[in-house]
């Protein structure tokens, strides 16, 4: 099938707007290199009128942050009966909520670090000091603190001393109303991207992340040169197979579609633990899914085009 008019959605108003715009430009350029007619549009107040005025054959959302990953924009695309790439709204809502996603993936047989999710209000109601003391007593140290919803490691930090937990929670609450506090697992951090083929979801080579100071934060993710990446990841055959299986299991268990990226940690014994999943993986020059695509000997534009063609085939 020959693709006609495709809209790539990027931007929006989340904290990750600039990253989304960079991702959108990369996808649009990759498709244009294959002579696919592409329009790059922002997710703003002009969008719906533009889609109605010049209805595209399909939409490729590359929106990061709340509206792009919680299913809301995709729900609007379904109201418009427009085919689009990526998970459907219900699946997005579960994957976007990190504690909910962890619970689903854990039930599917994939290990996750022990954790607790707490809304900001609980500290006012029960007393911050008492709650923080109990967290340390129950989960131990070090800990990893991050918003229950959100991406690009915004508001995330490692806590190695009990005295630093309060500040970490304050930093986390600057980006969300609830915090996920989990045991910090030392090991090799890897990202495994999954793309769907006619035969089903297929995992691409794992990308190992070697971040400065051991924290793959916002700066390390998007400033070229700050972080080293090794593809394929330096894992034993058994650990690499387990990481692949964990990513495909997460993709299936969460009911995702077309593409996803699962973040994992592999400890010294080779045990793989699920950290989180991304339904709208970054597509920038430093992002992990494009690196995995290249490591698999594939072309990013071809992968994106094939996903669009398959989505159109399934909707017609």
UniProtKB/TrEMBL annotation:
Domain of life, source organism: Bacteria
Note accompanying the cofactor annotation: Binds 2 magnesium or manganese ions per subunit.
GO cellular component, one term: cytoplasm
Required co-factors: Mg(2+); Mn(2+)
Pathways per UniProt: Cell wall biogenesis; peptidoglycan biosynthesis
Chain residues that bind Mg(2+) 1: 263, 276
Catalytic activity reported: 2 D-alanine + ATP = D-alanyl-D-alanine + ADP + phosphate + H(+)
Main localisation: cytoplasm
Catalytic center residues: 16, 152, 287
Residues the record lists as binding Mg(2+) 2: 276, 278
EC number: 6.3.2.4
GO MF term set: ATP binding; D-alanine-D-alanine ligase activity; metal ion binding
GO biological process terms held by the UniProt record: cell wall organization; peptidoglycan biosynthetic process; regulation of cell shape
Boundaries of every ATP-grasp domain copy: 102-309
Keyword line: ATP-binding, Cell shape, Cell wall biogenesis/degradation, Cytoplasm, Ligase, Magnesium, Manganese, Metal-binding, Nucleotide-binding, Peptidoglycan synthesis
Cell compartment(s), UniProt: Cytoplasm
Coiled-coil segments on the chain, per record: none
NCBIfam families: PRK01372.1
Protein family according to the UniProt entry: Belongs to the D-alanine--D-alanine ligase family.
Protein purpose: Cell wall formation.
Protein name as annotated: D-alanine--D-alanine ligase
